[in-house]
Amino acid sequence: MRRFATALTPLRRVFGASQPCSTRFSINSGARAFSTPPANDGVTIEGVAIEEEEGSVILGNEESSIEMNEDGDVEVIEPIFDEFDRAYGTGRRKTGVARVWIKEGSGQFIINNKTLHEYFQPQQRRDCAEAFHHAGQAGMFDVWCTVKGGGVTGQAGAIRLGTARALTAIKPHLRPTLSKAGYLSRDPRRVERKKPGQAKARKKFQWVKR
């Protein structure tokens, strides 16, 4: 059983579902999200292939995602590339700012024209590649980034956020997985400012009675 739908048709009328999801719509039990869509084999919604099997409509393009906008209409999210077939993401942590570009490759990781092992210690290396490991994409992309400001912890956190954002740009169907794990959230923690009349942010001078 197959049916055609347009990208701006309400979910209730086409799929019989009233909840947003990213890769699969269930006609019988509402919307359910899956991290890995099946192979491309079906009809198209604005260039994105879907197929209907056993009461569910499945997104067929592995690099696309379907979401519902504020008006309750189906919206297809396509991968975003630049002229060099790279995806871009900006990351920030403390005072560090990272600009990250990723492209399908062999897993090379370049930071400020240095390799990952030359630039960071083991703990920071794990932080930089954490988003790829969580999404099951380790070693599948080449990463080139520039980072400035902050220390090693702030720079590593900025690169982690930038790589996660770039990964969702090139593979939108991974957004629910990374978002649920917190990789797409900017860490707001910063060093607290020193207060006047105090030694530091919280530390006080020794009190003397007379």
Structure overview:
By secondary structure, this protein is of the alpha+beta class. The chain folds into two domains: 11-77, no CATH class; 87-180, Ribosomal Protein S5, domain 2 (2-Layer Sandwich). The protein contains five helices and twelve strands. It has helices at 11-14, 116-119, 122-134, 152-170, 175-180; strands spanning 24-26, 30-32, 43-45, 48-53, 56-59, 65-68, 74-77, 87-93, 96-104, 109-111, 114-115, 141-148. The strands form three sheets. Strands 2-1-5-4-3 form a five-stranded antiparallel β-sheet, with no helix packed on it. A hairpin with a 2-residue loop joins strand 10 (109-111) and strand 11 (114-115). The model is unreliable at 1-60 (pLDDT under 50).
What key attributes describe this structure?
Ribosomal Protein S5, domain 2, 5 helices, 2 domains, five-stranded mixed sheet
Write the layout of secondary structure elements.
Blueprint: H1 11-14, E1 24-26, E2 30-32, E3 43-45, E4 48-53, E5 56-59, E6 65-68, E7 74-77, E8 87-93, E9 96-104, E10 109-111, E11 114-115, H2 116-119, H3 122-134, E12 141-148, H4 152-170, H5 175-180
Parallel strand pairs: 10-12
Antiparallel strand pairs: 1-2, 1-5, 3-4, 4-5, 6-7, 8-9, 9-12, 10-11
Helix pairs in contact: 3-4
